[in-house]
Amino acid sequence: MKKYILFALLFISTSLFAQEHFNLGIKVGQNFTKVDNVAADRTKASFHIGATASIRLTNMLSVAPEVILSQTKLEADPTLMDLVGANNLQPETYHLNYLSFPVLLQVKPTSKLAIELGPQYSVLMNQSKDGKELANMAFKSGEFAFVGGAKLQFSGIAAYGRYVVGMQDINALQDQQHWKTRQWQLGISLNLFGF
Prior knowledge:
Distance between the termini: 31 Å
Strand order of the largest sheet: 1-3-4-5-6-7-8-9
C-alpha cells in the first residue's frame, strides 16, 4: 500500500511541476519561399497558421513542438513559346499546401528573447497550378528541413522570424534537377494559457 501512495504522490508532484512549465498558443504569419531550380521567376507571399506548445526544461531552455498549416506560392512568367503561341499570357502560380511539424529547442538568453533551432518535417497535403490539380506528381509528398530563428516575447504576445532550409530534394520528376526549399517566416504568436 505504501508503494501505491508513494507512486501517487510522485505522479501528482511531477504533474504539478510539469503544469507550471507548459504553455499553449496559436500563431499566424507570412512565408516567403524560394525553391532552387524550379522555373519560377519570383516568390509570392503566402501564409502559415498553427498551434504551438512550450515545455520549459530550465530557466534558459524549452522545447517547442508545433503544428503548422503552411502554403507556398511560386509564380512563373509565360515563356517566349507561350507568348508566340498565345497559349498562356498570364503568369503561372504553383500552390503547395503543407502540414509541418517543427520541434524546436528554445534558448532564452533573456526573458524577452528566445533563439529557436530544430528539425521540421512537412507533409504535402495538396499541390496545384493556377488552381488546377496539374502539378500532381511534380513534388514529393514530404520534406525534412532545419529551422533557425528568434522570437521576441511581450506579455503573452510574441513576434518571430525564422529561416527554414530544406534538407531533401522535393522533385518527384525524373529530370535529375534537385529542388530544395528556402523559406523566411515572419509572424506573431499568442499564448492562450499556461500552467
